[in-house]
């Protein structure tokens, strides 16, 4: 006699009785397949409590989530080096690296072993870092640019201040790091359409068309013109 | 920790700190305490990313570190627990509570601390002053002293506490050195926990001007980097979640009394709780006894009830089956306590009953309530007491049984366990049922988050397009464009696309709101379960 209760698979307990022994009537028909993914509900659930407080809590929640995204607490995986180096890469890379650098904890409260030394690929490479020789970076390092005077001044000031924080191994690396921070900071504020740094084109110029039509992978029958 | 808890924690970490931190955090949750090299090896992530992730996790209190178990010299071990991460669900409620108690200033202070994990008082005050100034009328700024005083109030009422000094660091004189290899000491075990440092904080908030170019941002950034000292270096503060939880518990009891009885009764209970705030320990089952005389004197002036009326209300509260208030003696006109544990247990019970009612109908709920009260009943007794015909009662019982909301116990009459000579008793056990329901809640929230991520992903292209258009609009407006140009840009989104965006927004809001609401249930059940564990 199939025990309808055991068929529901609740844990490893098997019941030592069957439906028929507890009561004389026939048991409900046993279920032979997994339950449906979205079963019809006999009782409709109540609506969410609305009201001013609920609305405010909702706004707080969404604002918080948005705020966390702009804070430097989300390290990201570096973009894997594409097979073909693209001109647009030079401009797309900057954003990721800022986040990695923007926040330094109070190291007195953290284990020493967690200190990170971040080296960035050269952008305006007056200095090259030999420890960073990946194919991407080699190419990047070849591109030299002009540094603004103001950035030099800013960099010098911030260098003084940041000296205590970083371990002073490679001063040049630090200099460049800070300079890139400033640059990158400045860049982030720029609107898409006004990108002063070395190019006359707006950012969407650098869209290399890889995203286009990415969703229609299923329709391989159609010819792509 | 259960699989559901780990899954939910993973989603919360991902939403707030990204996939990399999620990977490290989830790994630690599953593996227990590990040292850095093992984590790097087992997650397969780069050294730098693991280090950075651990920093983020430690900064936000999700991960603690201690010297290795094998004694001095063994590598530092990192330990992550679910509890702290699950608190992220409740952040909106903490922020909102701070707002109701201490206004916008309090709200922003708590929000800053939740966003940053832990910070110093001086940096919080400055940032909050800036933010408040931003929203003030032109020309007005927020003074640091005002923000400092709100910060101090939050510390005095224990909503904020100092981060405990690390083991091995030179402690302030008088505190014992923490022994190695024990559980990390609680923040409250340090005597300075609630001491506001004397800081020199003079100034006003700075309004951040709309930047014409990167210059303004850079100078603002420079200002932040320059290390003005204020006398509180090295003293870090964190939000004291337990204190907020006590507040929530009190609020829940007060509003339950208001719903069940009336406003005056709830004011009496509110008064009793307020009087007991500092004399009641967090895990106490009831408040210290208060005499009716004391309560009468402490009632808010707006409640002008006569003394005999107060006595009547107190009697009413004591007699109520929810057992919010109990009588502890006769002196002083009667000694009364608020039954904290009983109130939580009864509120949890009401929650369970409500769940059964909403999922299975009011008659199944009647059976459930019956079994909660009568403990063990045979099938026939259930049918009789619940006044439900046999066939339907049986169906309902079996449905509840299959959902594990009701259990069956066998009591044999004879040693051979023959079915015909065995009692089969239905029973409900409140504590295990509450635990099960709590796990269901975790699963529910995880499902809600996943659905929300799915909906966002489905409409990703449309969302990006809409964001780009908004950015273009914003920049056009800033540079003073013609209205025709603006409408031209707005029309780049077609009407059906707008419709789709509106629907998406509606769905996301619903899912987010549902998360908040489920967390209310989570809080109640967690409080009940913790209170039961503490009192047993």
Shape designation of chain B: globular
Assembly type of the chains comes to heterodimer
Taking all Cα atoms into account, the compactness measure Rg of chain B is: 28 Å
Q: Characterize the overall form of chain A.
A: elongated
What's the CATH C level of the largest domain in chain B?
A: Mainly Alpha
H-E string of chain A: HHHHHHHH
- The class by helix and strand makeup of chain B works out as mainly alpha
Give the number of domains of chain B.
5
Main sheet characteristics of chain A: none
Rg of chain A is: 30 Å
Helix content of chain A: 25-40%
Low-confidence stretches of chain B: 169-181, 211-226
The secondary-structure class of chain A comes to: mainly alpha
List low-pLDDT spans of chain A: 1-14, 122-148, 166-196, 213-219
Q: How do the strands line up in the largest sheet of chain B?
A: 1-3-2
Please name the two chains that share the biggest interface, counting residues whose Cβ lies under 8 Å from a Cβ on the partner chain: A-B, 66 and 78 residues
Question: Can you put this structure into words, describing what you see?
Answer:
The complex is a heterodimer of chains A (about 220) and B (about 525). With about 220 residues, chain A is mainly alpha-helical. Chain A has a domain at about 50-75 and about 85-110. Chain A is about 35% helix and about 0% strand. Chain A has helices at about 5, 20, 50-70, 90, 95-100, 135-140, 150-160, 170-190. In chain A, helix 5 (about 95-100) packs across helix 8 (about 170-190) and helix 7 packs across helix 8 (about 170-190). Chain A starts with a helix and ends in a 36-residue tail after the last helix. Chain B is mainly alpha-helical and about 525 residues long. Chain B has 5 domains: about 5-80, Arc Repressor Mutant, subunit A; about 85-170 and about 185-205 and about 235-240, Winged helix-like DNA-binding domain superfamily/Winged helix DNA-binding domain (Arc Repressor Mutant, subunit A); about 245-340, Winged helix-like DNA-binding domain superfamily/Winged helix DNA-binding domain (Arc Repressor Mutant, subunit A, Orthogonal Bundle), CATH 1.10.10; about 345-430, Winged helix-like DNA-binding domain superfamily/Winged helix DNA-binding domain (Arc Repressor Mutant, subunit A); about 445-480 and about 490-535. In chain B, strands 1-3-2 form a 3-stranded antiparallel beta sheet. In chain B, strand 8 and strand 9 (about 335-340) form a beta hairpin. In chain B, helix 13 (about 340-360) packs antiparallel against helix 14 (about 360-375). Chain B is globular. Mean pLDDT of chain B is about 85; it is low at about 170-180 and about 210-225.
């Amino acid at each position: 006699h199939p025990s309808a209760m055991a068929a529901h698979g609740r844990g490893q307990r098997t019941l030592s009785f069957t439906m028929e022994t507890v009561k004389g009537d026939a048991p409900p028909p046993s279920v032979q397949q997994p339950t449906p993914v979205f079963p019809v509900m006999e009782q409709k659930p109540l609506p969410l409590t609305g009201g001013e407080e609920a609305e405010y809590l909702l706004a707080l929640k969404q604002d918080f989530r948005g705020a966390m995204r702009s804070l430097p607490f989300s390290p990201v995986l570096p973009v894997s080096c594409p097979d073909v180096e693209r001109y647009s890469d030079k401009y797309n890379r900057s954003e990721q690296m800022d986040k990695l650098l923007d926040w330094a904890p109070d190291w007195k409260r953290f284990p020493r072993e967690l200190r990170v030394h971040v080296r960035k690929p050269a952008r305006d490479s007056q200095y090259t870092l030999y420890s960073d020789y990946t194919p991407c970076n080699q190419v990047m390092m070849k591109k030299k640019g002009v540094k603004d005077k103001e950035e030099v001044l800013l960099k010098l000031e911030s260098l003084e201040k940041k000296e205590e924080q970083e371990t002073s191994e490679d001063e040049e690396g630090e200099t460049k790091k800070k300079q890139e921070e400033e640059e990158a900071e400045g860049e982030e504020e720029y609107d898409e359409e006004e990108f002063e740094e070395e190019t006359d084109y707006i950012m969407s110029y650098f869209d290399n068309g890889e995203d286009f039509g990415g969703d229609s992978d299923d329709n391989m029958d159609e010819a792509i013109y | 920790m259960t699989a559901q808890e780990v899954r939910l924690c993973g989603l919360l970490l991902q939403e707030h700190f990204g996939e990399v931190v999620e990977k490290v955090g989830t790994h630690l949750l599953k593996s227990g305490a590990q040292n850095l090299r093992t984590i790097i090896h087992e997650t397969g992530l780069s050294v730098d990313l693991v280090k950075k992730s651990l920093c983020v996790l430690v900064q936000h209190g999700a991960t603690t570190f201690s010297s290795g178990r094998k004694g001095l010299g063994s590598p530092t071990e990192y330990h992550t627990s679910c509890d702290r991460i699950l608190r992220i669900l409740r952040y909106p409620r903490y922020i909102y509570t701070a707002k109701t108690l201490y206004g916008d200033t309090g709200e922003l202070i708590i929000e800053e601390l939740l966003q940053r994990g832990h910070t110093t008082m001086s940096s919080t005050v400055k940032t909050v002053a800036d933010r408040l100034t931003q929203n003030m009328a032109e020309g007005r700024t927020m003074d640091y002293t005002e923000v400092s005083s709100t910060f101090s109030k939050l510390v005095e009422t224990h909503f904020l506490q100092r981060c405990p000094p690390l083991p091995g660091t030179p402690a302030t004189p008088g505190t014992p050195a923490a022994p190695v290899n024990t559980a990390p000491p609680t923040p409250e075990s340090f005597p300075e926990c609630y001491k506001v440092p004397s800081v020199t904080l003079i100034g006003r908030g700075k309004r951040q001007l709309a930047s014409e170019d990167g210059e303004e941002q850079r100078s603002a950034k420079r200002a932040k980097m320059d290390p003005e000292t204020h006398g509180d270096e090295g003293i870090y503060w964190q939000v004291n979640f337990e204190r907020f939880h006590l507040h929530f518990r009190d609020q829940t009891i007060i509003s339950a009394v208001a719903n069940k009885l009336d406003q005056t009764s709830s004011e009496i209970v509110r008064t009793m709780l307020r009087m007991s705030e500092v004399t009641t320990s967090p895990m106490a089952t009831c408040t210290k006894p208060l005499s009716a005389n004391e309560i009468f004197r402490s009632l808010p002036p707006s409640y002008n009830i006569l003394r005999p009326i107060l006595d009547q209300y107190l009697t009413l509260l004591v007699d109520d089956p929810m057992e919010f208030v109990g009588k502890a003696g006769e002196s002083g006109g009667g000694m009364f306590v608020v039954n904290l544990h009983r109130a939580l247990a009864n509120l949890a019970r009401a929650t369970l009953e409500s769940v059964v009612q909403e999922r299975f109908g009011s008659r199944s709920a009647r059976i459930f309530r019956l079994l909660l009260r009568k403990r063990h009943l045979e099938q026939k007794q259930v049918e009789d007491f619940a006044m439900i015909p046999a066939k339907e009662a049986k169906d309902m019982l079996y449905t509840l049984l299959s959902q594990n909301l009701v259990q069956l116990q066998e009591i044999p009459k004879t040693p051979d366990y023959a079915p015909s000579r065995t009692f089969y008793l239905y029973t409900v056990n409140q504590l295990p049922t509450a635990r099960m329901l709590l796990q269901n809640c975790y699963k529910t929230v995880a499902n809600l988050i996943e659905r929300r991520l799915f909906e966002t992903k489905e409409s990703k292209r449309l969302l990006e397009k809409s964001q780009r258009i908004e950015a273009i609009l914003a920049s056009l407006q800033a540079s003073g464009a013609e209205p025709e140009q603006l409408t031209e840009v707005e029309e780049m989104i077609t009407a059906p696309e707008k419709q789709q965006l509106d629907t998406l927004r509606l769905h996301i809001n619903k899912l987010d709101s549902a998360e908040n609401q489920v967390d209310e249930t989570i809080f109640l059940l967690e409080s009940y379960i913790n209170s039961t564990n503490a009192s047993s």
